[in-house]
Structure formats: C-alpha cells, structure tokens
Amino acid sequence: MLTKSLKRALLDSRWPMPPTFLLPWAAGLTTVSHSTAASNLPPPLVSGVSNISRQREALQQDQRAPPRASSGPLASLPELPAANATSSPPALSQSVRELLPVLQAQGPHYIVAHLYDRPYLLTQGDTLRLPFHMKDVEPGDILRLDRASIIGSRDYTLKAATAPPALNQSTGKVSYVDDRLFVCRAVVMGVESDPLHVEEKTKRRQRKVKRVKSKHRHTILRIKEVRVRGLEEVE
C-alpha cells in the first residue's frame, strides 16, 4: 500500500521532489559538473587533448614556413645547353678555295635555282613567270633565292655535291650548293591571271552536264642580281 502511494506521488508533477533518503535508487547520484573543461577531464583524456593541440600548432608552423631547397639528386643535375646553340658552318674544300676566285672573275653568271622543288635556269635581268601564285608576297618585295644546284659562267661550273643514288631515289631530295657562295635576288613585279576557262564534264548515260570554271594566277619575278661571292665575304 505504501509503495503504490509513493509511485503515485512521484508521477504527479504537482507534488515536490521527495528527499533523496526516501529513494533507494538515488543513492549513487553525484553533484560533479559534466563540462568538457580540461580541469574536469581524467588524466589520460587531458594528455590526449594536449597532444592533438601540439600537432595542430606544428602543422600550422610547417604551412607558414617557406619551402626548403631540395638536397636530393635533382639538385645536383648538370645544366642543359641552350636550345638555340648552333654549330659553326662547314669549312670550304681546297678545290673550292682555288677555283672560286676564278669563277667570280669570269662573268656573266647563270644559276639553276629551285623554287618549291622546281628548277629554273636564270641570269641577271630575266623575267620569271611562275606557274603558280606565291602567297604572302606583294609587288615590290625583294626575295633571296638561296637554293641552287648549279652556278656557272662561260667556262666554269660549280655543282652541288651529289648524294648517293639510293638516298635520292628513296627521299627524292636534291643537293644544293652552299648558300654562302652566291647571291641571287628577285623582285616581285605583280600577279597575272589567265583568261576564264570553262570546261564541261559529263558522265555516260546521264543528261547532267557539269561546268567547271578555272582562272589561274601567276606571280611575276624579275631577277635583280646574280653574282658569286669571294672568299673574303664567305669567311
């Protein structure tokens, strides 16, 4: 009977809290604060918190510190040579040294110049009509033709060194004379156009006729200078 009245008194909110000596299960209650302050934590937990704070401080100092120079194998690598370093031009042969002054003294000279792998026999004062339109040039521009396979006069001829036949057949390349030995300049005179040409194309058993229009343009060059340089200019 006493037990039921006691439970009813505890459940009723209007009644105040009974004294603790009447509650046998409240004998183990304590009044210690459960805050997370360091003074209230047990010794092992306090030491763990201090270690975490030290690690955070050390990480912040490492991030603020400037980067150190690496002392590994990368620091001892040798310096690479400059990319624009060019080798010296090849020396002239003894036969060229002996006969070049003779070729220079005898004029006029002619040259077999190559433009887009096409050879043209030229002398000073000639007018060259190219079978194509040269891009990025305007009338009045001066062009230097630095690819030639033959330079000659009335009695002397200077040819480029012949490459092996297997190399010429496989690559289709032509050997050229050293561009230090001659000077060939051309002036762009203008551009000429062919008359309009209309060609009709048909197919067998078809009534459709296709008309193709073509009007080619040609660049006109005038050879301004053709001469052979001396040994003093070459060297």
Automatic annotation (TrEMBL):
InterPro entries registered for this protein in UniProt: bL21-like (IPR028909), bL21-like_sf (IPR036164)
Superkingdom per UniProt: Eukaryota
Residue span of region Disordered: 54-90
GO terms of molecular function: structural constituent of ribosome
One Gene Ontology cellular component annotation held by this UniProt entry: mitochondrial large ribosomal subunit
Similarity annotation: Belongs to the bacterial ribosomal protein bL21 family.
Protein name as catalogued: Large ribosomal subunit protein bL21m
